């Protein structure tokens, strides 16, 4: 990578250092897309196959075709790589889910199901993304548990404020908070996944979509004014 040099009182330094200070992943994101995707795909596969503790950065580097030292040149440690993956994959999924039709839907429950079906399509297209997403939603290692729990809930608030802005909330009963209904949907999904994991059953995307349609019907009857049910 070519760098423009500037001189200050402390001597010569790279002009990219200021950029790196603002974006800790600037070195990684300056790579060609093909190389970045190879590293991301290798990391998603490794974290999808293994819990956080067992996921080997050496295996990630080997799958990506780079050295472990070079991997740590881009990411200072495994936790930083993991958090980068979460942000990167969230942005990628949102770009695929939020299409032209998305903002034309003004019904809360129709939009919820539309987004869920689009996410299902994305998960089915990318191997190991489902496993990685489930492990990220249920972090079990002390290095990332608190960080990921807070990250997951902060993204829910962002999702609600950003992607439900065209929803007609006037359809809700006056005594029902739409944001609380989002929490109910999340708690139902959480309970479903906990049950499947406790029974050592694989998480079926189609099975979960069937359940989600039932939850939407149930919550529509509870939350909407009679004329909109």
Task: Explain the overall architecture.
It is a single chain. Mean pLDDT is 85; it is low at 1-19. With 229 residues, the protein is mainly alpha-helical. β1 and β2 form a beta hairpin. The protein has 11 helices and 2 strands, in the order ββααααααααααα. The protein has a single domain (31-228), classed as Tetracycline Repressor, domain 2, CATH 1.10.357.10. It has a two-stranded antiparallel ribbon.
Structure in a nutshell:
This protein is mainly α.
Low-confidence spans: 1-19
Major sheet characteristics: 2 strands, antiparallel
Please write the CATH class name: Mainly Alpha
Order of helices and strands: EEHHHHHHHHHHH
Gross morphology: elongated
Label the CATH architecture. Answer: Orthogonal Bundle
C-alpha Rg (nearest Å):
21 Å
* Whole-number total of structural domains: 1
At the fourth CATH level, what is the homologous superfamily? Answer: Tetracycline Repressor, domain 2
Query: Percent range for helical residues?
Result: 55-70%
Quick one: how many beta strands? 2
Task: Present the secondary structure layout.
Blueprint: E1 5-8, E2 11-14, H1 16-22, H2 26-29, H3 33-49, H4 57-64, H5 68-74, H6 78-97, H7 108-125, H8 129-137, H9 145-163, H10 178-198, H11 205-223
Antiparallel strand pairs: 1-2
Helix pairs in contact: 3-4, 3-8, 7-11, 10-11
Question: What features would you highlight for this structure?
Answer:
2 strands, mainly alpha, two-stranded antiparallel sheet, Tetracycline Repressor, domain 2, disordered N terminus
């Amino acid at each position: 990578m070519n760098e423009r040099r500037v001189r200050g009182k402390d001597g010569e330094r790279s002009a990219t250092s200021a950029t790196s200070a603002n974006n800790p992943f600037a070195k990684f994101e300056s790579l060609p897309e093909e190389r970045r995707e190879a590293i991301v795909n290798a990391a998603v596969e490794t974290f999808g196959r293994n819990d956080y503790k067992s996921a080997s950065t050496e295996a990630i580097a080997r799958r990506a075709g780079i050295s472990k030292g070079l991997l740590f040149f881009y990411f200072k440690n495994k936790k930083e790589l993991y958090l980068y993956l979460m942000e990167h994959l969230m942005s990628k999924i949102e770009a695929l889910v939020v299409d032209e039709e998305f903002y034309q839907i003004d019904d809360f429950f129709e939009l919820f199901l539309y987004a869920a079906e689009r996410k299902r399509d994305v998960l089915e297209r990318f191997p190991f993304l489902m496993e990685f997403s489930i492990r990220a939603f249920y972090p079990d290692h002390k290095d990332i548990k608190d960080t990921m729990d807070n990250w997951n809930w902060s993204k829910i608030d962002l999702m609600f404020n950003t992607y439900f802005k065209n929803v007609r909330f006037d359809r809700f009963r006056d005594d029902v908070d739409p944001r609380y209904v989002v929490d109910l949907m999340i708690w139902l999904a959480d309970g479903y996944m906990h049950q499947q994991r406790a029974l050592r059953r694989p998480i079926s995307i189609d099975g979960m979509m069937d359940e989600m349609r039932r939850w939407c019907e149930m919550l529509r009857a509870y939350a909407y004014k009679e004329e909109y049910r």
